[in-house]
């Protein structure tokens, strides 16, 4: 099956700084993929490359089997809602929908109207007079009503209040279930991602630290607690993600396919949030031996 988003040794440099480097990943079609990473990790850069808004410095990126933004057919397949949720300030909400209908061959007007109504957006109101959250709702509506194969959302819920956030994520899930659309969304809110994503990509310092199905990620990570120990003595198949020590005790987060048989360890499962935080911590960043999970 064609990947919804695939990258091979993808890199983007601004001046001397690499915003993204050596990025190789595969997000299969039909998934809701979460893109997570600290500020400046390269999430927006990756999404802009996937949307065809930026061109790679090195490597290649592919979306829905084609080069991003490479022609009208390709453009119709992908919707991108950028982080600042750009809209036309001088146009009303209704005019945005009319523009959407004119520019997009698969435009779903009924869906667009239903969402505007559900969110209580006045069709006559100019977009420039909307609040930040309302503007995000309008931009998200335009993206969804385009009926794309792939929906790229850069921090879509950041400006929404908790109720609107929950409602938006629920409606996104409905659309995914009905339509089979692939979604890649970035967020700092791992709890939200945990609720909706079945695939996760962790970016740190412009590099992919983790790329895989959420179930597989959860199944292969364990927290080990036991008497203080040098992590260099752990078996080779236990990849250390992070470790912390007190005088007498060590807590180590490992990724491993194999069962953990050492009786000195108390082994526990961990939730996605703890796992992601361990990857984001400086400790994980400093470990060059850490292989990307695929
Ligand atoms: N137009 C630009 N010119 C120069 N540097 C840039 C530009 N855009 C991004 N960068 C740099 O590239 C790196 C990655 O930025 P990017 O916006 O992709 O990160 P991000 O993960 O989306 O961050 P955030 O969570 O803060 O939105 C950062 O170091 C940023 O300063």
From TrEMBL:
Gene Ontology molecular function: any one = ATP binding
User: What is any Pfam family matched here?
Assistant: ABC_tran
Looking up CDD domains in the UniProt record yields: ABC_DR_subfamily_A
Question: Which of UniProt's keywords are assigned here?
Answer: ATP-binding, Nucleotide-binding, Transport
Does the keyword field hold Heme?
no
Source taxon at top rank: Bacteria
Q: ABC transporter domain spans which residues?
A: 5-230
Record's protein name: ABC transporter ATP-binding protein
Q: What are the top taxonomic ranks of the organism? A: Bacteria, Bacillati, Actinomycetota, Actinomycetes, Pseudonocardiales
């Amino acid at each position: 099956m064609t990947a919804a988003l695939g990258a091979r040794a993808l890199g983007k440099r601004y001046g001397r700084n690499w915003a993204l480097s050596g990025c190789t990943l595969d997000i299969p079609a039909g998934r809701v993929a979460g893109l997570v990473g600290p500020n400046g990790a390269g999430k927006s850069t990756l999404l802009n490359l996937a949307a065809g808004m930026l061109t790679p410095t090195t490597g290649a990126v592919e979306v829905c089997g084609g080069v991003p933004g490479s022609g009208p057919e390709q453009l119709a397949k992908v919707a991108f809602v950028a982080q600042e949720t750009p809209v036309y300030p001088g146009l009303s909400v209704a005019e945005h929908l009319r523009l959407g209908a004119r520019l997009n061959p698969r435009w779903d007007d009924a869906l667009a109207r239903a969402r505007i109504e559900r969110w209580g957006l006045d069709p006559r109101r100019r977009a420039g007079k909307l609040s930040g959250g309302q503007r995000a709702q309008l931009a998200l509506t335009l993206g969804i009503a385009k009926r794309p194969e792939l929906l790229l959302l850069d921090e879509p819920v950041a400006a929404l209040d908790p109720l609107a956030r929950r409602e938006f994520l629920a409606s996104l899930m409905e659309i995914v279930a009905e339509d089979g659309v692939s979604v890649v969304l970035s967020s700092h809110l791992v709890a939200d991602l945990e609720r909706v994503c079945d695939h996760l990509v962790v970016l740190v310092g412009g590099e992919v630290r983790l790329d895989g199905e959420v179930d597989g990620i959860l199944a292969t990570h364990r927290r080990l607690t036991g008497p203080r120990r040098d992590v260099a003595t752990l078996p080779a198949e236990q990849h250390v993600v992070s470790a912390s020590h007190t005088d007498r005790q060590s807590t180590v987060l490992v990724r491993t396919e194999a069962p953990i048989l050492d009786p000195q360890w108390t082994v526990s499962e961990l939730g996605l949030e703890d796992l992601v935080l361990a990857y984001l911590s400086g400790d994980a960043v400093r470990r060059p031996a850490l292989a990307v999970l695929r």
